[in-house]
Design goal:
It is a single chain. The chain is of the alpha/beta class. About 30% of the residues lie in helices and about 25% in strands. The protein is built from 5 helices and 11 strands. A 6-stranded parallel β-sheet has the order 3-2-1-6-9-11, with helices on both faces. The protein has a 3-stranded antiparallel β-sheet with strand order 7-8-10, covered by helices on one side. A two-stranded antiparallel ribbon has the order 4-5. The termini are far apart.
Length: about 170
């Protein structure tokens, strides 16, 4: 509560389906100041102490990733806004950005990027330079990339150039 008696706005966070994003989601569930939306079936099954409000977006379950996708998920996502969107990816291309293996997931991720103020990409470095078939976001649409290891200096330089080029072409 604010001192003026009004309610303090909760931060809205979207947690994407995926193993690394699941770990972030587990940590954030303890925060009472968050309203968490997700398409991650495993995150919805977390039964620990939950202080955050947790909401499923609905949709069809994609068995491989345990992600909720499809028309119902997209319909809900288009009505919501997020302060922070935390996305996973199946692959990363140094020039093109983040990618995934399935069109339904790519469409959900693209919609989330449109609806989020800040976009975090959470991956491990094993996905670097191993793009999946469907690119869902150029580097210019990602605000922060969180990973388990630093890239080599030459790779970081190439990534910065690709992100700067993508941003300048988008203007």
């Amino acid at each position: 509560r604010r001192r003026d008696g009004g309610r303090q706005a909760m931060t809205t966070v979207f947690i994407d389906a995926g193993t690394i994003t699941l770990e972030l989601g587990r940590l954030l569930l303890a925060r009472a100041d968050l309203r968490i939306y997700t398409n991650s079936v495993p995150l919805l099954h977390e039964h620990g102490e939950r202080a955050a409000q947790l909401t499923a977006v609905g949709g069809e379950v994609r068995e491989v990733s345990q992600a909720l996708v499809g028309a119902l998920a997209l319909s809900w996502l288009r009505q919501l806004r997020f302060d922070i969107v935390a996305l996973g990816a199946s692959g990363l291309d140094p020039a093109e950005g983040a990618s995934t293996t399935e069109l339904g997931e790519a469409t959900v991720k693209q919609t989330l990027i449109e609806r989020g103020r800040r976009v975090l990409l959470l991956t491990d470095t094993s996905k670097w330079n191993r793009p999946a078939p469907i690119c869902f976001a150029p580097w210019s649409q990602i605000n922060d990339w969180v990973t388990d290891q630093s890239l080599a200096r030459s790779e970081l330089t190439a990534l910065r150039k690709a992100a700067d080029l993508a941003r300048s072409e988008g203007q």
